[in-house]
Amino acid sequence: SGSAGVDVATAIDVMLTTGDIQLVSSTLKGPLGYGLSALLLGRPSTSRQGIFVLPGVIDADYTGVIKIMLYTLAPPVSIPKGSKIAQLVPFQSQVPYALAVARGEGGFGSTGQPQVLFALDIQRSKPEELVEIRHPSGGKLMLEMIIDTGADVTIIP
Protein backbone atom coordinates (compact mmCIF):
# COMPACT_ATOMS: atom_id res chain seq x y z
CA SER A 1 0.00 0.00 0.00
CA GLY A 2 1.04 3.61 -0.39
CA SER A 3 1.93 5.91 -3.23
CA ALA A 4 3.65 4.56 -6.34
CA GLY A 5 5.50 7.82 -6.84
CA VAL A 6 7.38 10.59 -5.07
CA ASP A 7 6.18 14.16 -5.62
CA VAL A 8 8.54 16.50 -7.48
CA ALA A 9 8.45 20.26 -6.80
CA THR A 10 9.67 23.20 -8.86
CA ALA A 11 12.87 24.89 -7.65
CA ILE A 12 11.87 28.29 -9.07
CA ASP A 13 8.83 30.41 -9.87
CA VAL A 14 7.67 29.64 -13.42
CA MET A 15 5.58 31.74 -15.81
CA LEU A 16 4.29 29.93 -18.90
CA THR A 17 3.58 32.77 -21.34
CA THR A 18 3.33 30.65 -24.51
CA GLY A 19 2.37 27.10 -25.42
CA ASP A 20 6.04 26.22 -25.95
CA ILE A 21 7.71 23.47 -23.93
CA GLN A 22 9.77 24.82 -21.03
CA LEU A 23 12.48 23.05 -19.07
CA VAL A 24 12.13 23.73 -15.34
CA SER A 25 14.54 22.74 -12.56
CA SER A 26 13.11 20.63 -9.76
CA THR A 27 14.25 20.45 -6.15
CA LEU A 28 15.69 16.94 -6.73
CA LYS A 29 19.13 15.84 -7.90
CA GLY A 30 20.35 12.42 -9.05
CA PRO A 31 21.42 9.77 -8.51
CA LEU A 32 18.22 8.39 -7.03
CA GLY A 33 20.02 5.70 -5.02
CA TYR A 34 19.74 1.92 -4.66
CA GLY A 35 20.43 1.56 -8.41
CA LEU A 36 16.94 2.82 -9.22
CA SER A 37 15.81 4.60 -12.36
CA ALA A 38 12.49 6.46 -12.49
CA LEU A 39 9.74 7.66 -14.76
CA LEU A 40 9.02 11.37 -14.42
CA LEU A 41 5.28 11.88 -14.91
CA GLY A 42 2.77 14.65 -14.40
CA ARG A 43 0.43 14.54 -11.45
CA PRO A 44 -3.27 14.22 -12.35
CA SER A 45 -4.06 17.40 -10.42
CA THR A 46 -1.52 19.27 -12.55
CA SER A 47 -3.15 18.13 -15.80
CA ARG A 48 -6.57 19.17 -14.50
CA GLN A 49 -5.17 22.69 -14.11
CA GLY A 50 -4.13 22.76 -17.79
CA ILE A 51 -0.41 22.20 -17.16
CA PHE A 52 1.04 19.20 -18.99
CA VAL A 53 4.26 17.46 -17.95
CA LEU A 54 6.02 15.52 -20.68
CA PRO A 55 7.09 12.09 -19.44
CA GLY A 56 10.77 11.26 -19.14
CA VAL A 57 13.17 8.63 -17.84
CA ILE A 58 15.72 9.41 -15.13
CA ASP A 59 18.58 6.92 -15.40
CA ALA A 60 20.10 5.37 -12.27
CA ASP A 61 23.48 6.98 -12.98
CA TYR A 62 22.19 10.50 -13.71
CA THR A 63 23.84 12.98 -11.32
CA GLY A 64 22.38 16.35 -12.33
CA VAL A 65 19.36 18.37 -11.27
CA ILE A 66 16.18 16.61 -12.36
CA LYS A 67 14.37 18.84 -14.86
CA ILE A 68 10.69 18.89 -15.73
CA MET A 69 9.49 19.49 -19.31
CA LEU A 70 6.10 21.18 -19.29
CA TYR A 71 3.71 23.28 -21.33
CA THR A 72 0.21 24.70 -21.24
CA LEU A 73 -2.48 25.13 -23.88
CA ALA A 74 -3.93 28.19 -22.14
CA PRO A 75 -1.17 30.69 -21.26
CA PRO A 76 -0.39 32.64 -19.22
CA VAL A 77 0.02 30.28 -16.25
CA SER A 78 1.99 31.03 -13.09
CA ILE A 79 3.54 28.16 -11.12
CA PRO A 80 4.96 29.17 -7.72
CA LYS A 81 8.29 27.84 -6.48
CA GLY A 82 7.77 24.60 -4.54
CA SER A 83 4.67 23.53 -6.50
CA LYS A 84 4.42 19.74 -6.70
CA ILE A 85 3.62 19.36 -10.39
CA ALA A 86 5.25 16.01 -11.20
CA GLN A 87 6.07 12.66 -9.66
CA LEU A 88 8.90 10.14 -9.90
CA VAL A 89 7.84 6.51 -10.19
CA PRO A 90 10.95 4.44 -9.40
CA PHE A 91 11.82 1.13 -11.04
CA GLN A 92 14.71 -1.30 -11.22
CA SER A 93 16.05 -1.42 -14.80
CA GLN A 94 15.66 -4.81 -16.45
CA VAL A 95 17.84 -4.17 -19.52
CA PRO A 96 20.06 -7.28 -19.69
CA TYR A 97 22.90 -5.88 -21.82
CA ALA A 98 22.87 -2.13 -21.27
CA LEU A 99 26.01 -0.33 -22.36
CA ALA A 100 27.95 1.32 -19.55
CA VAL A 101 27.71 5.01 -20.49
CA ALA A 102 28.63 7.51 -17.79
CA ARG A 103 25.72 9.96 -17.92
CA GLY A 104 26.83 12.37 -15.25
CA GLU A 105 24.84 15.58 -15.50
CA GLY A 106 24.12 15.17 -19.21
CA GLY A 107 20.42 14.95 -19.82
CA PHE A 108 17.94 15.03 -22.69
CA GLY A 109 19.99 12.89 -25.06
CA SER A 110 23.25 14.74 -24.51
CA THR A 111 25.17 11.51 -23.84
CA GLY A 112 24.28 9.87 -27.15
CA GLN A 113 25.01 10.58 -30.80
CA PRO A 114 23.51 13.79 -32.20
CA GLN A 115 20.25 13.22 -34.02
CA VAL A 116 19.10 14.84 -37.23
CA LEU A 117 15.42 14.25 -37.84
CA PHE A 118 13.61 14.82 -41.13
CA ALA A 119 10.90 17.45 -41.05
CA LEU A 120 8.55 18.39 -43.88
CA ASP A 121 6.62 21.65 -43.95
CA ILE A 122 3.25 20.42 -45.20
CA GLN A 123 1.81 23.94 -45.21
CA ARG A 124 3.72 24.83 -48.40
CA SER A 125 4.52 21.49 -50.00
CA LYS A 126 2.31 18.55 -49.24
CA PRO A 127 3.54 14.94 -49.51
CA GLU A 128 1.45 13.66 -52.42
CA GLU A 129 1.25 10.46 -54.42
CA LEU A 130 -0.66 9.49 -57.57
CA VAL A 131 -3.16 6.78 -56.55
CA GLU A 132 -5.30 4.53 -58.75
CA ILE A 133 -8.64 3.39 -57.31
CA ARG A 134 -10.19 0.42 -59.16
CA HIS A 135 -13.84 -0.63 -59.10
CA PRO A 136 -14.77 -4.34 -59.45
CA SER A 137 -16.75 -3.50 -62.63
CA GLY A 138 -13.53 -2.39 -64.34
CA GLY A 139 -13.70 1.35 -63.83
CA LYS A 140 -10.73 3.18 -62.39
CA LEU A 141 -10.01 6.61 -61.03
CA MET A 142 -6.60 8.31 -60.80
CA LEU A 143 -6.20 10.84 -57.98
CA GLU A 144 -3.36 12.91 -56.59
CA MET A 145 -3.65 12.20 -52.86
CA ILE A 146 -1.97 13.48 -49.72
CA ILE A 147 0.17 10.85 -47.99
CA ASP A 148 -0.82 10.08 -44.40
CA THR A 149 1.75 11.77 -42.17
CA GLY A 150 0.54 10.09 -39.00
CA ALA A 151 -2.63 12.10 -38.56
CA ASP A 152 -5.77 10.28 -37.43
CA VAL A 153 -7.59 10.91 -40.73
CA THR A 154 -6.63 10.60 -44.41
CA ILE A 155 -8.67 12.86 -46.68
CA ILE A 156 -9.57 11.88 -50.25
CA PRO A 157 -10.16 15.07 -52.29
From TrEMBL:
InterPro entries: Aspartic_peptidase_AS, dUTPase-like, dUTPase-like_sf, dUTPase_trimeric, HERV-K_Pro_peptidase_A2, Peptidase_A2_cat. Residues 143-157 form the Peptidase A2 domain. PROSITE patterns: ASP_PROT_RETROV, ASP_PROTEASE. Gene3D superfamilies: 2.70.40.10. It comes from Casuarius casuarius (Southern cassowary). GO terms for molecular function: aspartic-type endopeptidase activity. The lineage of its organism: Eukaryota, Metazoa, Chordata, Craniata, Vertebrata. This is DUT nucleotidohydrolase. Pfam families: dUTPase. CDD domains: trimeric_dUTPase.
